[in-house]
Amino acid sequence: MTQSTLIRGEHLSVALSLAASGVPVLPLRAGKVPFGNCPACTGNACGGRPNMKIPGPCTCPAPCHGWAAATIDPGSLNSAEWARAWAVAAAVAYHPGGAGVTVVDLDNADAIAWARENLPATRTVATTRGEHWIYRGVMSSANAVRPGVDVKSSMSYARWLGPGTGTVAALPDVVRGMVVREPAPARPMRAAVPAPVGGGVCPHRSPKYLERGIAMAEQRITAATAAVHATVFGAFLAVLSTHGHCGCLTEAHIARLFAAAGAKGESPRHCADAWSNAVHRLGM
């Protein structure tokens, strides 16, 4: 057995151990990057994967969806498709958000010095150039939040470099605040398609019918316990597909949907983007 074969076998062994403890893992190729999508999934033509917050299932068994390929399923990790990836893998990565943690990636000595002055002590892991500071809690990810500092949590991945030292502390507000951006200016809503002309009557102008549709969409969003982005998009799409072409939707109805999404943690920008994407999907 060659040294490279031994190392690759160790990568899979580490990945299986992490997965057994509930940490979603994936292989990285040289350059610390995920494996590219297979031809059937290029450009997310497959519809993406649910945990990428993209509607539609993907049946591709290969680890080809970046951070969203991370899994705790030993069957996938040991499958023939993943074996081809492990055969050339250069490292193991994990999805911090899926593991319930946030990684503050400190790239240099100055960044480490800043962290020691401004962040509470927590578990640390040595990296090639700096340190990973690991906190308990999940948040949005962002790069370059300050010089030499990245935040990796949801929709991101980090290399596994060992368990580190120290006790994991709760995610502090100062880290959450590092990725908070000023809300984008509200986008003007596209006008609903007018009601049919020539004396036609909109079939949805019954207040009860429309109210029921909006209430059901609000309930669907409120009941979401996971994949909130995808649930919000699906609810917006359902409302628009039924009521968007006849002119019965008003700004008040849209505001109710946005408020329900906001209560689940969606920002005004996310709401506006989801609404615009739904409009585009329906060709309105």
Largest sheet: 6 strands, mixed
Provide the gyration radius in Å: 23 Å
The helix content is 25-40%
Number of strands: 9
The outline comes out as globular
Distance between the termini: 60 Å
Q: How many helices does DSSP assign?
A: 9
Average pLDDT value? 81
What is the percentage of strand-forming residues?
5-15%
Structural class: alpha+beta
Run of helices and strands: HEHHEEHEEEEEEHHHHH
Q: What are the segments in which pLDDT stays under 50 over at least 5 consecutive residues?
A: 1-6, 182-201
Characteristic key phrases:
284 residues; 6-stranded mixed β-sheet; 3-stranded antiparallel β-sheet; 37% helix; globular; disordered N terminus
Can you put this structure into words, describing what you see?
With 284 residues, the chain is α+β, with helices and mostly antiparallel strands. It is built from nine helices and nine strands. 32% of the residues are buried. The N terminus is likely disordered.
